[in-house]
């Protein structure tokens, strides 16, 4: 932090030298972030990685122009001032978050970065009194505004229609492997495996509150078990299925929701009303699973129907018979 700073400075209180120093450090950070994005994408999305390499190189050019201006006006020593030293100044995500961002999220983050940088240069140019400084800051504001065009030019060079199609297909496949597949497995397990204990309890006791408690315990327990099992059995390195915590979260949450769907109706005191609603919810859940399998996993509709609806119906009937016996 700059000597004498005891708290963050307001942007309006910065001198022109400090504004230039802030711009220099910001360009350095942005170039580093773009290179991190490129490194993150290089193996799976090489064309997009090349685009971020090009954007990082352009940020380096901006930094060089800013340093040249600072050297001409204020000398070689550049004050150490960064985003976190200025109140209200836009922040960047920690670079390590790039490891968890999807391709679309990285692209959106880059667009937001350019918009924020443009606004900074526009405000900085409005405050500058030196003609050369004002001109450079204005030029950089225009450059940041034009980064969409720069990205488009780089995309034309590196991201051919075939490359874009391949990358989009890869991103869709990664989404399926990381979120849809574990979530679907969890929803199936939570919806089907909790049917027998919940409905057996319901028909054995005809007590809606006890049935709800059993259903809540079964749903949460199954969610925790499925979540940890999914996260622990595959680290995703060799299978390419994505981060274990993401898959575990998807599986655990959907397992819990699958069980809670037909447990929550038993908060209604009337046993037969609660049971009628719970049975209706079960069939909605089962058909939702069929739709997800058909839509995202390309499972033939009739096969998915046979596996899920018939199987779930048999489990439901077994629970009712056991509880009523």
Which key terms come to mind for this protein?
single chain; mainly alpha; 2 domains; two-stranded parallel sheet; 11 helices; elongated; disordered N terminus
Descriptive notes:
This protein has 325 residues and is mostly helical. It has two domains: 9-159, Up-down Bundle (Ferritin), CATH 1.20.1260; 171-324, no CATH class. The chain is built from eleven helices and two strands; from the N terminus they run βααβααααααααα. It has helices spanning 16-41, 46-74, 103-127, 131-145, 147-158, 161-193, 195-205, 208-233, 244-263, 271-296, 301-324, and strands at 9-10, 86-87. A two-stranded parallel ribbon has the order 1-2. α7 (195-205) packs antiparallel against α8. The longest helix is centred in the middle third of the chain and has 33 residues, at 161-193.
Which structural class should the secondary elements be placed in? mainly alpha
Q: How many domains make up the coordinates?
A: 2
Fraction of residues in β-strands:
under 5%
Give the strand order, joined by hyphens, for the main sheet.
1-2
Taking the alpha carbons of the first and last residues, their distance comes to 75 Å
Helical fraction: over 70%
Show unreliable segments.
Answer: 1-6
> How many DSSP E strands?
2
**Which series of helices and strands comes N to C?**
EHHEHHHHHHHHH
State the major sheet: 2 strands, parallel
Query: Mean pLDDT, as a whole number?
Result: 83
Please give the count of helices. 11
The rounded Rg comes to 28 Å
| Shape assignment | elongated
């Amino acid at each position: 932090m700059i000597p004498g700073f005891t708290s963050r400075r307001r942007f309006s209180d910065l001198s022109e030298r400090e504004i230039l120093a802030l711009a220099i450090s910001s360009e350095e950070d942005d170039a580093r972030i773009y290179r991190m994005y490129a490194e993150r994408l290089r193996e799976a999305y090489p064309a997009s990685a090349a685009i971020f390499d090009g954007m990082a190189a352009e940020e380096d050019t901006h930094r060089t122009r800013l340093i040249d201006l600072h050297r001409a006006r204020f000398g070689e020593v550049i004050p150490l001032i960064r985003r976190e030293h200025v109140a209200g100044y836009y922040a960047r995500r920690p670079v390590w978050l790039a490891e968890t961002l999807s391709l679309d999220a990285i692209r959106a983050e880059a667009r937001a970065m350019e918009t924020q940088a443009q606004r900074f240069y526009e405000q900085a140019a409005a405050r500058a009194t030196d003609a050369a400084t004002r001109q450079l800051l204005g030029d950089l504001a225009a450059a940041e505004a034009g980064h969409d065009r720069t990205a488009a030019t780089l995309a034309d060079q590196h991201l051919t229609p075939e490359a874009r199609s391949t990358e989009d297909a890869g991103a869709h496949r990664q989404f399926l492997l990381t979120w849809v597949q574990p979530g679907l497995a969890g929803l199936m397990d939570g919806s089907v495996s909790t049917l027998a204990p919940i409905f057996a309890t319901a028909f054995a006791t005809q007590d809606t509150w006890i049935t709800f408690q059993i259903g809540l315990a079964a749903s949460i327990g199954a969610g925790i078990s499925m979540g940890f099992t999914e996260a622990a059995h595959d680290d995703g390195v060799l299978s390419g299925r994505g981060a274990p915590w993401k898959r575990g979260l998807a599986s655990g949450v959907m397992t819990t929701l699958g069980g809670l769907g037909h447990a929550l109706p038993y908060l209604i005191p009337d046993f037969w009303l609660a049971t009628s609603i719970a049975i209706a919810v079960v069939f909605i859940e089962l058909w939702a699973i069929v739709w997800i399998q058909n839509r995202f996993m390309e499972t033939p509709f009739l096969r998915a129907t046979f596996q899920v609806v018939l199987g779930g119906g048999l489990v439901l009937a077994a629970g009712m018979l056991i509880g009523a016996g």
